[in-house]
Sequence to fold (333 residues):
Amino acid sequence: MLILAFESSCDETAVAVVRDGRHVLSDAILSQADMHALYGGVVPEIASRKHIEAIAGLTDQALREAGVGREEIDAVAVTYGPGLIGALLVGVSFAKSVAYALGKPLIPVHHLRGHIAANYLAFPELEPPFLALCISGGNSMLVDVRGYTDMSIVGATRDDAAGECFDKIARVLGLPYPGGKPMDDLAQGGCDTAYHLPRSKVTDCDLDMSFSGLKTAVVNLVHNAQQKGEEIDRPGLAASVAAAISDELVPRTMEAARRFGHHTVVAAGGVAANSRIRRDLQRSCQENHLKLYLPPLRLCGDNGAMIGSQAYYESLCQPAADMTLNAYATLEI
Fold:
């Protein structure tokens, strides 16, 4: 089954051709990161306009690189939430027009289900059930994946996401947007005990997380040092932040896997590219005798291939959408 897949939930326009949910024939991506870096974050109106400019050309590119014609496509897939509503609407509208013009089924895909499915592309042997740690700029959650389309959230952040925390702290430190990789690079030369930073504890749900306190603590620390004319150990602070975020995520992941009887752990999302989190996950899974799947860095960020992968499994379990399909800024997994 050949699926033409569209992803436009934030600031990457992506179009891919995927066969049977496991084989990527093409994955064309156009990032807007350099443009949004001028503003220190994603400007939704600009993102939407750039998606409009890019999506038709990327579709032609994806088909050309896959070596298939439009008539060979069996279905059209698209991210319909969650994300920036204007950006999502560009992808949904374009995908509906393509599906209508080609007379092909339209498959809506949840963005985070797509991130989880990115692992199916990298690891052909991977099958549910497993425990997924989904960590990105807008989401941080633990997902009990019982089947390809049967999943539920068992723990999540109560406020900021881990990726948002990295981005906002990077801005305070004068690092470029997006802040995840610059923070990771800076942390390589630092001591992770240079600063004592808070770790949250959510009393009514021990699998839930909170990152707003960490973000505020670091912002106040930097501002106080600047006001006093004190020097900040920037590598040490970056390493301490990474350690604090990892300490929120990894132990809860191990506990969730134990509690729900999983022997396999899967990481997903842009923050899964962070070297400290990857290292801590590897160590903890080894200590707890769990099988770990870490997506390659190229599949951590937003891409169309992951949407095409999940769409295949969605198509096996539910009917195609019609032309009334809408986009949603928030959407249950």
Summary: The mean pLDDT is 95.
